[in-house]
Design goal:
With about 325 residues, the protein is of the alpha/beta class. It has helices at about 20-35, 65-75, 85-90, 100-105, 110-130, 135-140, 150-175, 175-180, 190-195, 205-210, 215-225, 265-270, 280-290, 320-330; strands at about 5-10, 10-15, 40, 185, 200, 230-235, 260, 290, 305, 310. The protein starts with 5 loop residues before the first strand and ends with a helix.
């Protein structure tokens, strides 16, 4: 894990950074639940810190709300497998509150099918015009018979639930001993590094600061790769792959491997990226020699497995990436 606390951006020097809360927690919990003995490491042994941006409430919507939102937007796209979702759709347009609004309609006497149809029509307009869902429902007569207070109350309820989930995850991370007192990667010998069965690096912008050019991370990668053991990373975590040494032929260790990571498109949509990145990860991986393999659209869950290398594209790929690691370990 990164122990970086700041990143220099074009429009914000010494900007707070760290690891991505959801990625680290969900992956850790999945590994432990499968019976893995997890050792938390940072380059210098300093405790990793949570990237403050990763605690924003809109990154922690309950799964049932995300799923209902998906069932809504899939009704107005001809090809449900090629839906281009931007961060604005989930952070600015209130669309994820659809489930809670629909439930209020059902409580008021609508059937679930009627409520879903009304929400789908309103969401399509909000999506196309880039307007807030409740404003569209009120303006277009698609309120389903609900008063404005009930509609806005559903949005507030969702935001409250998301804030509570964010607080819960922050607390859970704080209770993990390894996150409070990690092992210093720099202290481990070649023999100790070779004893690990796999390694996994979560994202957050921190890895771009202290894992992209780290000799000790390079030692760890080389030790595992030489034994064909899983080398895994997620989102901005694949920055650590840039620390991998060269092969005997002078090429990067993973030259020609299929790799994914947080994409330039995703970077340009998030609040940190908009402040001006010092460099772009997917471009750097391509320049190093990777065959970049991203999803057809931003924010989709996407995992790439090429030989012993496992990479995930974004936070939505967390569970699938962790599961790929467990599958490689037969756990």
């Amino acid at each position: 894990m990164s122990s970086a606390r700041e990143i220099d951006l074009r429009d914000s020097s010494n900007h707070p950074t760290g690891f991505w809360a959801e990625e680290a927690l969900k992956a850790y919990q999945r590994f432990v639940a499968a019976g893995a003995d997890v050792v938390v490491m940072t380059p210098d042994g300093k405790a990793p810190v949570i990237d403050p941006y990763s605690l924003e409430a809109f990154f922690h919507y309950p799964d049932e709300d995300r799923d209902y939102f998906a069932s809504v937007y899939r009704t107005f796209h001809q090809d449900p497998d090629d839906i281009r979702i931007t961060l604005a759709h989930t952070t600015e347009q209130e669309l994820v509150a659809s489930r809670r609004i629909a439930q209020r309609m059902v409580d008021a006497g609508r059937t679930p099918e009627e409520a879903h149809g009304i929400l789908s029509n309103a969401a399509k307009i909000a999506w196309r015009k880039n307007e807030k869902l409740v404003d569209v429902m009120l303006a277009e007569g698609l309120d389903g018979g609900l008063p404005e207070a009930a509609l806005r109350g559903a949005v507030e309820e969702l935001e409250s639930a998301a804030r509570a989930k964010s607080d819960e995850r922050k607390a859970e991370l704080g209770e993990i001993p390894g996150f409070r007192s990690p092992v210093a990667l720099s202290d481990l010998s070649e023999e100790q590094l070779a004893e690990f069965d796999a390694f996994f690096a979560p994202g957050g912008h921190g890895p771009m600061v202290d894992l992209a050019d780290n000799a000790d991370a390079g030692r760890l990668i080389a030790a595992l790769h030489a034994q064909n053991k899983p080398v895994a990373s997620l989102c901005h975590g694949p920055a650590v792959l840039l620390s991998a040494p060269e092969r005997h032929d002078g090429q990067w260790l993973f030259e020609g491997f299929r790799v994914t990571s947080y994409t330039d498109e995703e970077e340009d949509q998030n609040a940190i990226g908009m402040l001006g990145m010092p460099w772009y990860l997917d471009a750097a991986l391509k320049n190093a020699g990777a065959v970049f393999d991203d999803a057809p659209f931003a924010w989709a869950s996407h995992v790439v497995v090429d030989r012993n290398l496992i990479t995930g594209q974004n936070p939505n790929s967390t569970e699938a990436t962790a599961d790929a690691v467990l599958k490689a370990l037969s756990l």
